[in-house]
Amino acid sequence: MISTMSMANPLKKFVSCVILDLDGTLLNTDGIVSDILKVFLVKYGKQWDGREGNRIVGKTPFEAAATIVEDYKLPCPTEEFIAEITPMFSDQWCKIKPLPGANRLIKHFIGHNVPMALASNSPRANIEAKISCHEGWKESFSIIIGGDEVKAGKPSPEIFLEAARRLNIEPSSCLVIEDSLPGVMGGKAAGMEVVAVPSIPKQSHLYTAADEVINSLLDLQPEKWGLPAFEDWVEGTLPVEPWHIGGPVVKGFGRGSKVLGIPTANLSTEGYSAVLSQHPSGVYFGWAALSTRGVYKMVMSIGWNPYFNNVEKTIEPWLLHEFEEDFYGEELRLVIVGYIRPEANFPSLESLVAKIQEDRKVAEIALDLPLYSKFRDDPYLKGSSL
């Protein structure tokens, strides 16, 4: 087993510590930022349209604020903007959820005595306030450094070099995990290995400086860096905290059965944008219930389907059962219990179809395991409201 793993995932480099960013890497701050700016800009007769999202990710709070003031031509200095908006953010710190895989990653490294540092462009007081809302986080980091504790924030390497100095570990032995381009640039300038987990969809092609780009923290393979491997994968699947989604079956792109020979039962994403933003794109599986027909095994993709280059994030469940006819309009309820792999692009339609069929086999076998089969009786599938 070990030789297969090492052949499939050759060791990139030995590291002995991990330096993590906070916002966008461990915490899902994007939604909070948008919600607050939408409300705040109304005061100036402006409408937040998210176009600055790409430009403010990873910047220091002052730089991010200056960008917004300039782009929206706000009639106030940056300092005044910050003074007004900061209390609005402070009220929301404890509403920010960890990104999928964040708690798992922290527990894993703590359990294996891997030293961790937290290095964020946010002021130290803000970092402390945010992590105090998450049990066990503060004690898990040997070192915490805020942007106000160094002369220059990311993309300067200073914050990373300071973290290595305080950990008493050579920079070349540190692995940085970052969601933003400034963070990646800072980590590389510090002479460290960098794994990028882009927080903005469809931007991974910009992260060429990183040593590896992954879709989400669920896909991190610590053994590539000489760190202990996760031990929670079961038969090629990763158990996730079960979540539910449902609605009438809608017509999709028609490509499921027509192009791929794989009849998916699409759900409308309307009203589910918040739920979708919490879950990385990829292939998942679980149980599906049709109100008039019963409960079935299910494998599903969430994301943009790079081969077809969707413009919006979609949910495309495939019920693993031969149906005699279409069931558009019927109520479909899903309980998602596990994760298989990140979304990927494919060189040909044949290779895409082959991979989807492989996903089906993985899901069918996994759903017979007691770990997953027990969710066949989830009350949500029987029509109970959550």
Protein described:
By secondary structure, the protein is α/β, with parallel strands linked by helices. It contains 14 helices and 12 strands. The strands form 2 sheets. A 6-stranded parallel beta sheet has the order 3-2-1-4-5-6, sandwiched between helices. A 6-stranded antiparallel beta sheet has the order 8-7-12-9-10-11, covered by helices on one side. A hairpin with a 3-residue loop joins strand 9 (282-290) and strand 10 (294-303). The longest helix is centred in the last third of the chain and has 18 residues, at 349-366. The radius of gyration is 22 Å and the shape is globular. Residues 1-7 have low confidence and may be disordered.
List keywords for this structure.
386 residues, alpha/beta, six-stranded antiparallel beta sheet, 14 helices, 12 strands, globular
Content-based structural category: alpha/beta
- Estimate the global geometry from the Cα principal axes: globular
Q: Walk across the major sheet and give the strand order.
A: 3-2-1-4-5-6
Helix content: 25-40%
The description of the largest β-sheet is: 6 strands, parallel
Q: In angstroms, what separates the terminal alpha carbons? A: 42 Å
Mean pLDDT: 86
Total number of strands: 12
Number of helices: 14
Q: Any idea what the radius of gyration is?
A: 22 Å
How do the SSEs run, as a string of H and E?
HEHHHHHEHHEHEHEEEHEHEEEEHH
Beta-sheet strand percentage?
15-25%
Low-confidence stretches: 1-7
